Amino acid sequence: MSVEHVSMRIIDGYARGDTDIAADEVWALEAHMEMCGVCRDRLSAAVTAGAPAVTALVDTVWSGLEPQLAAVAPVPRRRHWSAWLSGWLTPTMVPWLAMVMSVTLLALLLDLVGNGSDEVSLVLLLAPVLPVLGVAASWSRGLDPAYELTAAAPRAGLYLVLRRTASVLAVVLPALLVGGWATGVMVAQWLLPCLAFASTTLALGGVIGVTRAAVVLVAGWAALVVAPTLVTNRTTFVLHTGGLPMWGLIFALGIGVVITRRGTYSVLGAHR
Predict the structure, then answer these.
(1) What are 48-67's pLDDT values in tens digits?
(2) For residue 69, what are the contacts with CB-CB under 8 A and spacing of at least 6?
(3) Do 30 and 159 sit in the same domain of this protein?
(4) Beta-carbon neighbour count of residue 9 at 10 Å?
(5) Assessment of whether the complete model's pTM goes beyond 0.85
(6) How far is it, in rounded angstroms, from Cα 48 to Cα 18?
(7) Do 108 and 17 share a structural domain?
(8) Distance (Å, rounded) from C-alpha 63 to C-alpha 56?
(9) Torsions phi, psi for 104 (to 5 deg)
(10) 101 shares a domain with 53
């Protein structure tokens, strides 16, 4: 495959339905076709010349659909910002993000009305796992009615996972930034754990599914950190500045695993 366009060898083989084309070449071809009108025209010409039966089938289907499509009222064109937003978020993510924001606001209010300087900051305690809830919702089979189409799309997989994760972080991190500023918590104390948990969720999600990974991590955090911290009323070491190198290492390892196993996000199992 050339830098600018797909080679005719791959296009002709794709048009004929050859099975000897590598899976990564098929994926790259389909992803490239989304952005390249020239290669789409070349593929159309190859199908017409090399697979007349496919062309005849498409013409037959289109002749049956055209009268029905003409009778349907035109769909209002979406605004540019709405179309752009739909590429980063799914409608099912909105309630989950609203819930995450509500929990953040509640934790902030409880911190602000607390009495005593030794009390544990709930914003700091909950910040690492709050983005995980949004990430799980963005890649959940049960919450995405179009998950099969999503997983089969050419630009699905790691590319889409990272886009949706970035959209969750773009919403949650500013709220945590305000909460940390209002309660006097250092940014690094909650930012690195947030990023570490997000990367670990995606890394573990390539093995057991993103939703299951989120449940496991949130449950483990609640049992091993949140409960003991609330009982002893002392902030655990992992949330002190001394634990930041550990969170940085976890974040880097998570990113490394995600990149290494990037192909696993193109299968339906990642939606579990």
Answers:
(1) 777 777 777 777 887 877 77
(2) none
(3) no
(4) 12
(5) no
(6) 16
(7) no
(8) 11
(9) -60, -45
(10) no
* Euclidean distance between CA atoms 98 and 80, whole angstroms: 24
Same domain, 100 and 139: yes
Digit-coded pLDDT (tens) for 11-23 = 888 877 777 777 7
Of 268, 150, 253, the C-alpha closest to 204 is 253
